[in-house]
Amino acid sequence: MGLIVQKFGGTSVGNSERILNVAERVIEEKNRGNDVVVVVSAMGKTTDQLVSLAGEVTSSPSKREMDMLLTTGEQITISLLAMALQHKGYDAISFTGWQAGIETEPVFGNARVLNIERTRLQAELAKGKVVIVAGFQGATADGEIATLGRGGSDTTAVALAAALKADKCDIYTDVTGVFTTDPRYVKGARKLLSISYDEMLELANLGAGVLHPRAVEFAKNYHVPLEVRSSMERESGTIIEEEGKMEQNLVVRGIAFEDKITKVTVLGLSNTLSSLSTIFTTLANNHLNVDIIIQSTTNKNTTDLSFSIHSEDLKDTLQVLADNKESLKYENVQFESDLAKVSIVGSGMVSNPGVAAKMFEVLANESIEVKMVSTSEIKVSTVVEEGNMIRAVDSLHQAFELAGTTVKS
Amino acid sequence: MGLIVQKFGGTSVGNSERILNVAERVIEEKNRGNDVVVVVSAMGKTTDQLVSLAGEVTSSPSKREMDMLLTTGEQITISLLAMALQHKGYDAISFTGWQAGIETEPVFGNARVLNIERTRLQAELAKGKVVIVAGFQGATADGEIATLGRGGSDTTAVALAAALKADKCDIYTDVTGVFTTDPRYVKGARKLLSISYDEMLELANLGAGVLHPRAVEFAKNYHVPLEVRSSMERESGTIIEEEGKMEQNLVVRGIAFEDKITKVTVLGLSNTLSSLSTIFTTLANNHLNVDIIIQSTTNKNTTDLSFSIHSEDLKDTLQVLADNKESLKYENVQFESDLAKVSIVGSGMVSNPGVAAKMFEVLANESIEVKMVSTSEIKVSTVVEEGNMIRAVDSLHQAFELAGTTVKS
């Protein structure tokens, strides 16, 4: 007897047949004697369809109204899943984000969860009901509907698991677990039995795509055990927990990659103690995410600063920089698009010097130019041209001996 | 300078192009110097599509989850209309039913509006914004999403007009006004310049389809002037107000008709003082609407009771009667489906004896059997076979001299 939070993504609830399949997975868990909270995303292409509908009306929709529009997607799924469970003879009740007590900060399009008021969900669980919650959404203290941004349904699931002190949070998806790299692009990519929060966090942050980084962070902070597993197959997935079992004591655990990266360079930035703080505070206040940052001082008075962003944020980033040119005190802005980020991740790296050197050597042998570099204790990231991305991943996957047979259990 | 509530139905917001057209109609009103509150329905066939999606999952969806599902339809429209207005340079903000402070009774599928908390809407109007509200929906005091039933968006519009003390409530639809009868079926049907609340109420109740009866009742009770008009044409529509202007002093003002009627007969009902009250209280408690009621006493101890319902409520009605057979004390239940109701309406009727007689004569001449009759001071309703409906309307429209040229203004 415990409490399990299950999360099913858009593909898993893509049509009514799949929703009935999800109901079966919920019932299996319920029949094991567990209380179940289910978090679902919008059905398949619903979000894309809504975005395109907005595009027919305006080229620059306000974020508030986009959130109003997009949150209908998950609301459709929760009601259909509740109906499916009721149809199969199980008591179920659906809740939108605001009904589930998910309070977010007052930001549209990319809000953080501030608090979860558990009373209503706990009351329904106590009645033996399966509780279904719309992912990706919440409401501000003022009663405004806000979304949690990309991958927000993962965050909803983990946040609910933390708030309700769930025993486990299962992330059901269209892959069978976390792989050494994306098996759609690299032959021999291998499923990991387990991985640590920190490694997963680097992989998630680096665009592995299986799990949203904010969700992993939440899970790490609140010690929520996660399992990434398939909504179609019955095999076990990948457990994400405090210390990943060192199955093969690999120095590099996985390789992540992400395209649509743009490098922005601010030239002739006034070289004062506060200039870096000012520029990134300004961007953060406009909810623009900056990833890799490189500074190279050219002379005493000014400095050149480069940073990477998602290409979709380029327009807003340039606008914010232009709007604040006077206060930021710089000469010029340049940018380079069509870039990609390739990263190696592994907690064994910290005790193995020369891992970064080996990475650069592999890329150099492939004649791949490295445009930016960033390192942490457990990862090395490089920015390369988009066209070189898959070749870089492939050669690194071989060089670090990650290939192998998929672990079945 | 005043406050106008505009309501646009599903056809008027059927696609993005029409939503942009609706934005123009809103802007015209705003540019006249008025504050504007806009109530919209779900886009075109959205509600039907959602109902069919539910049908793929279960044959008997719970009403709570249907409300959860269907309310997404209006939420999509409000966000798109807000985007359209913002695109055209007008400040606008959209609200779901619960955000707009529309509190309903705790009933799903057919809830009544209990109260409207105006603060939030008034604050946005004071900022000069166009306020857009999702029709058809509200929330209970417990935060459950509930719909107002068929034609509920009209009710939302009139309830908001009453709560905000609007100067006028314009119901934009796909017809140019209220007609003597449905022009799609009867040639020579004529648009009325004005009509009284009571006449409109009878016409709305009788299935004229232009306006929801609950909305007319609300308008009458709170003295909200209504105008039914076209969302595509610029011509004036039909004003609904305290005393309709007696343009031609017609005895009969209009003819309403409605198909999908079922006559239910309860045989051998125990003839006590409370038996009628018990049976209809039981049906009402199950939110089943009964229309015409006929009682004929056959002997001292028992009575036969007939009433008409919407055919879609037949299954539930038979279930409720069966479930309560013991307490209701009757012998048997019969029913006859595929019936229709045809009614003549006009406030002149009260001072003109013989109107009902003329109606029966017209129907008899057409060899149309009258299955049930019900009268009020301003209407006579008959139930006939569905196949005779249009012929009955046609012959009555001619006999009461309703045909004429459409009034343009």
UniProtKB/TrEMBL annotation, chains A, B:
Binding site residues for ATP: K7, F8, G9, G10, T173, D174, R184
GO CC annotation, single: cytosol
Enzyme class label: transferase
Annotated catalysed reactions: L-aspartate + ATP = 4-phospho-L-aspartate + ADP
Keyword ATP-binding carried by entry: yes
Pathway(s) per entry: Amino-acid biosynthesis; L-lysine biosynthesis via DAP pathway; (S)-tetrahydrodipicolinate from L-aspartate: step 1/4; Amino-acid biosynthesis; L-methionine biosynthesis via de novo pathway; L-homoserine from L-aspartate: step 1/3; Amino-acid biosynthesis; L-threonine biosynthesis; L-threonine from L-aspartate: step 1/5
Lipid metabolism among keywords: no
Gene Ontology molecular function, alphabetical: aspartate kinase activity; ATP binding
Chain positions recorded as substrate binding sites: T47, E74
Keywords: Amino-acid biosynthesis, ATP-binding, Diaminopimelate biosynthesis, Kinase, Lysine biosynthesis, Nucleotide-binding, Repeat, Transferase
Gene Ontology BP terms: diaminopimelate biosynthetic process; homoserine biosynthetic process; lysine biosynthetic process via diaminopimelate
Domain ACT: 264-347
InterPro entries: AceGlu_kinase-like_sf (IPR036393), ACT-like_dom_sf (IPR045865), ACT_Aspartokinase (IPR054352), ACT_dom (IPR002912), AKii-LysC-BS (IPR041740), Asp/Glu/Uridylate_kinase (IPR001048), Asp_kin_monofn (IPR005260), Asp_kinase (IPR001341)
Pfam families: AA_kinase (PF00696), ACT_9 (PF22468)
EC number(s) reported in the record: 2.7.2.4
Purpose: Catalyzes the phosphorylation of the beta-carboxyl group of aspartic acid with ATP to yield 4-phospho-L-aspartate, which is involved in the branched biosynthetic pathway leading to the biosynthesis of amino acids threonine, isoleucine and methionine.
Family per similarity comment: Belongs to the aspartokinase family.
Quaternary data: Tetramer consisting of 2 isoforms Alpha (catalytic and regulation) and of a homodimer of 2 isoforms Beta (regulation).
Protein name as annotated: Aspartokinase
Lineage summary: Bacteria, Bacillati, Bacillota, Bacilli, Bacillales
Encoding gene per record: lysC
